[in-house]
Known about the structure:
The protein is of the alpha+beta class and 337 residues long. It has helices spanning 31-35, 93-102, 155-158, 166-169, 195-203, 211-225, 246-255, 273-279, 308-326; strands at 5-9, 21-28, 47-49, 55-56, 61-68, 73-78, 82-88, 127-128, 131-132, 137-144, 149-154, 175-185, 233-237, 243-244, 261-263, 269-271, 286-287, 290-292, 299-302, 335-336. The protein has 3 domains: 5-68, Uridine Diphospho-n-acetylenolpyruvylglucosamine Reductase, domain 2 (2-Layer Sandwich), CATH 3.30.43; 73-185, Uridine Diphospho-n-acetylenolpyruvylglucosamine Reductase, domain 3, CATH 3.30.465.10; 233-332, Alpha-Beta Complex (Uridine Diphospho-n-acetylenolpyruvylglucosamine Reductase, domain 1), CATH 3.90.78.
Amino acid sequence: MMPVQKNISLLPYNSFHLDVHAAEFLLVKSAEELQNMPGQQFAEPMLILGGGSNVLLTRNVEGLVLKIDIRGIDELKEDSTHVYVRAGAGENWHEFVQYAISRNWGGLENLSLIPGSVGAAPIQNIGAYGVELKDVFYELEAFDRKKKKVFTYGLNDCRFGYRDSFFKSAEKGRYIILNVTFLLNKKPVLNTHYGAIREELKKKGVHAPTIRDVSETVIHIRRSKLPDPAEIGNAGSFFKNPVVEQELFLSLSAKFPDMPAYPHEDQSVKLAAGWLIEQCGWKGYRKGDAGVHKDQALVLVNYGKATGREIFDLSEKIAASVQKKFGVKLEREVNVF
Length: 337
Ligand code: EPU
């Protein structure tokens, strides 16, 4: 087991590049280490970090930070059409996606270049370009801090929803995801119905795309719109796209005929938060080092020395103006600590 480190800066461990400190910091390499940890080490307040790409740190952590660094990719079993692949929670998401693509295992290609770790992916059911994690999920193992035991959770146990799961809504930090098993397709079925992917493939003259073509197209689209966290601090979409009732949608679309909208479950409608924020005049806004990305208004950025508090305050102002202009409540996608 690694030693507990004291008074560590979390700057290298969060994609918003926020310089808060952890009183104690521990790199976790295995489930056994968690099981053997003395109970008092799990005292509050504590924070579980995966890739650190979906968290806004607004203060120092007075307790323990666990950085999950459980590695390994294993092919568990296969049949004529599918392969079951288990990846450690600490594996980098994009590297895992590329690993699958290099073996021609289909299913993950639309989720290329999403920052973060494998273990964080199910927590908010990551999604992009028409695919969500739940579409390729088989099961996961998680350590329950309360019971000090490892449990297996299948698809239904996880209660996946739009950027949501049982693990996001459960008590914060109770479950620590150890590994995730994916069900991948040896005879890939491509998902290219998302407009931007179709257009880009057409532009490139690709008529019979492979999963690698789809992956490269997704990478190209993401690079053209989303800031690279290695260069500008950010955590991807800051808010969820809001889901509204038919009635509100109809009155809004009468007033704003250009408003993008997508059908959602039970007659509800999903609106584009980026569009709503842009309409309120925030796109490209900057105050100090906290700002709104110039090409994607749904992404808040840290140009250098912004604090988590400044970014949080900016997000409150944005949400208030969207509420005022459209009567729509924006919900944060990132986890605030
Ligand atoms: N739009 C604007 N202005 C903006 C941004 C967007 O008018 O500043 C409009 C676009 O023109 C488009 C619509 O809003 O009509 C939707 O935009 P986009 O296709 O860029 O996707 P998004 O809804 O903003 C979602 C996910 C992204 C994911 C993309 C592609 C959420 C919260 N975000 O963004 O996920 O990559 O779709 O599937 O669902 C993330 O979760 O961190 C993330 C980046």
